[in-house]
């Protein structure tokens, strides 16, 4: 239910024919300057569709932290960062390894109740493909070994902030880590189809995999950029894709439909690996970085309201709703 202040804002919105997402976001502020705090009259969450409906997303978050935002604005995944930076929403969901967080003057709020599960990525390969090409495990292992949190944040930043393409960022990283040569050999091995989801990190992981396999003599079909977790998982199970990088937490909660999240990386990996073996899918070694969900604010706003944790945010939102 809309509170009294929100009704006032909505009335002004109609009278002046302004865009709702702009006014609702930060109580009608006309601009947000970096380093300048907004006055937030209505606490709105900017989120993509998937987070708004996932079992480890917004709905359960409300229950664990015992609060509700005044409104939720569902938008395309990449738009949440810009909407937050520009003051169109005061809070947005994001990913912990996204390079835009620091670059855009944003901060991640501490998940002080340990709500978000671990999300370590690993290549998931169809068993029959790995049986045909057992060397895939050895070829892909160095990616998992070398992709730490700092490296992944930097790769994401190169694409989202510095305007490199995922292909360029992937090639530069592979060359820096001495995982490929400048020239790929002629195709000598079979065909591998590599998939990915549609967001930046997944596109980068897909391109790293594609270029490494090509450098090892495979013919690779690029099926990266598939729309969302369910789509790429279905493509893998339907044999349209041979391998892609999946997150342990996504598999545990979404595909395997478990209700209790796991916060230990090794435990989650072993459980999804064991469960998917029955589906003819093999989880190779996981990377050490954890791309869990996060709630973000503009640093200036978080500092002004004394918000460092999600619990802090919940208290501020509830206090505002009592006015």
Automatic annotation (TrEMBL):
ABC-type glycine betaine transport system substrate-binding domain segment(s): 42-174, 191-318
Signal peptide boundaries: 1-23
Transmembrane segments: none
InterPro entries xref list: ABC_Gly_betaine_transp_sub-bd
Top-level taxon of origin: Bacteria
An example Gene Ontology CC term for this record: ATP-binding cassette (ABC) transporter complex
UniProt GO molecular function: transmembrane transporter activity
Signal is among the record's keywords: yes
Keyword Signal: yes
Alphabetical UniProt keywords: Signal
Protein name: ABC-type glycine betaine transport system, substrate-binding domain
């Amino acid at each position: 239910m809309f509170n009294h202040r929100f009704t006032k804002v909505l009335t002004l919105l109609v009278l002046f024919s302004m865009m709702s997402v702009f006014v609702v976001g930060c109580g009608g502020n006309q601009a947000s300057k970096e380093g300048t705090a907004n006055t937030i009259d209505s606490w709105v969450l900017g989120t993509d569709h998937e987070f708004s409906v996932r079992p480890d997303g917004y709905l359960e978050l409300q229950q664990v932290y015992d609060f509700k935002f005044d409104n939720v604005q569902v938008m395309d995944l990449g738009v949440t960062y810009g909407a937050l930076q520009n003051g169109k929403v005061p809070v947005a969901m994001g990913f912990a390894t996204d390079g835009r967080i620091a670059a855009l003057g944003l901060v991640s709020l501490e998940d002080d109740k340990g709500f978000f599960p671990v999300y370590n990525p690993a290549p998931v390969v169809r068993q029959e493909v790995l049986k045909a090409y057992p060397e895939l495990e050895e070829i892909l292992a160095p990616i998992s070994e070398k992709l730490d949190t700092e490296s992944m944040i930097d790769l994401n930043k190169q694409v989202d902030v510095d305007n490199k393409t995922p292909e360029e960022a992937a090639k530069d990283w592979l060359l820096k880590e001495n995982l490929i040569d400048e020239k790929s050999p002629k195709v000598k091995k079979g065909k591998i189809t590599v998939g990915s989801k549609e967001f930046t990190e997944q596109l980068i992981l897909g391109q790293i995999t594609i270029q490494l396999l090509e450098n090892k003599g495979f013919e690779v079909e690029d099926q990266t950029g598939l729309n969302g977790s369910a789509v790429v998982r279905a493509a893998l199970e339907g044999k349209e894709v041979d391998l892609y990088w999946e997150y342990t937490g996504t598999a545990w909660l979404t595909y395997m439909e478990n209700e209790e999240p796991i916060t230990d990386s090794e435990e989650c990996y072993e459980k999804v690996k064991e469960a998917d073996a029955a589906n003819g899918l093999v989880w190779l070694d996981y990377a050490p970085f954890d791309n869990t969900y996060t709630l973000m604010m503009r640093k200036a706003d978080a500092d002004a309201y004394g918000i460092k944790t999600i619990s802090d945010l919940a208290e501020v939102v509830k206090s505002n709703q009592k006015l």
